[in-house]
Amino acid sequence: MVAYRYLSGRLTSEATFPNTDNGYREFNDYLVRNGSSVFSMLVNVSEEGYQVDTIPFLRGGDRQAVIARKLDQLFFGAGLKAAFSLGTEKEQRKNEKILFAALTNDGLLSPWLDIFVAQDAALAGVYSLPQLVPPLLRKLSLNSDACLVLTVQDHSIRQSYIAKGELHFSRLAQIHHSSIGDLARNLATEAPKLQQYLASQRLVTRHQPLTAYIVAHRNALKAIEEACTASSTIRYSFVDIEECAKRTGLKTTPASSHSEELFLNLLATRPPRVQFAGDEPRHGFHVRLIRKTFQGIGAVALLACLLVAGKTAFDTYSIAQETTALRADAALAQQRYAQIVRSFPPTPGNDAGLRTAIERYGQMEQKSRSPDDLFHEISRALQVTPAADIESIEWKLVAADKPAAQPRTSPEAMGGEIAVVRGVIRYGDRANARQVLATFDMFVQALRDNPELQIEVIQRPFDIESAKVLKGGDTRIEDDSPRPFSVSITRKLPA
Fold first, then answer.
1. What is the reported pLDDT for 473?
2. Distance between CA 200 and CA 95 in Å, rounded?
3. CATH of 372-491, one of 1.10.10, 3.30.30, 3.30.70, 2.40.50
4. Cα–Cα distance between 321 and 293 in angstroms, integer?
5. DSSP structure string for 12-46
6. Which of 26, 226, 286, 408 is most buried (most C-beta within 10 Å)?
7. DSSP H helices in 120-217
8. pLDDT, tens digit, for every residue of 118-170?
């Protein structure tokens, strides 16, 4: 177990832990010292299994149940297993092609995973090195329809078969000598072996041409090119590992053909969606995700509150500025008003006399009357007698304190408002005296219906004595001229 720290495209080897009890204790202490870090485990072991199979096209929980049952059948007892979708088949019915994979030696990895569980460390996942081969080809823009990828790790050669951009098979071959010549001979030998195995497993046809990409350091490429001989089924393509590091964003330049740091950089920048660990080793990572989610929600809520507080503060400042401006305008207006008041001519008399005059004027204003009420009563009477036309109305107010020579029953002695109404009765040439008098009496009676009014007839349409009786010869009017009348209306004002 080798621990690397990744920061801004640079990998730094921090510690190496042997597969012993002492190594486990050191790794436990390492996790304690780095409790705030997030860990990803990249595994490169020969104890692995791959099987391509199809399942019915399903979704959701049904698909997960079928995949879990299939994994248990293929890799019974293995704790680290995963399924990778390879797309759907369209030849017959719609089935989904799945690559079932497992790391079959649980005893090799379980001591390290138990330490993650004991420390509740944030383990993002357990990944197999072949999972990162397709992303490497995409980064290098290499054709990945049907190819072999050979990379060198510590004492091993990783051989992966890629079809249509997805991993279909991988195997690990141990190497016992690290010289460039031995490495070149092993690479030249392993590629044909893998092609023959794939043909035997019917993953490729017997004569299907494959491109074998070999990733190595430039110091070893010449020897590897001389050792690898192309055939009808295998064409070799050599890739400089330094160019790979540059294209994938790794700022630490590899010093040899070993590609561990190259794949670790891919794991840190573009981790695969599928990993091998179960829920228990990843409990700390899940807790961290939940914590970060709530922290993000809290940060968003805090930012929203700060924005609202900022807007409120800005509005308060604007209102304070407007208030200050309004107070300045009010003070300026007060000064102008004072200047205008000082320019007025002096008021005759003192303030007390002026106040008394204003109060008396108010009292007189309250006691003043208008002829509106009497005009309303006259209008009401005219609605009853439309033949009566008003020519003039003389309205006046009379005080009650008149000389004693006048009788108290006269309107002038009583005091109030008096209106003298003068008008005519218009009936035309067919009217008689009785009709004219009846109209006049109706007009007078309409006025007398209001008990507050005192009516006095000054002039009737015909001058007749009260004891004189109109005869038949008097019923016709000698001419058709309007008959004038005059009526005095008096109403006593309330005290």
1. 44
2. 24
3. 3.30.70
4. 42
5. EEEEE--SSHHHHHHHHHHHHHTTT-EEEEEE--S
6. 26
7. 133-140, 180-200
8. 999 999 999 999 999 999 999 999 988 899 999 998 889 999 999 999 999 99
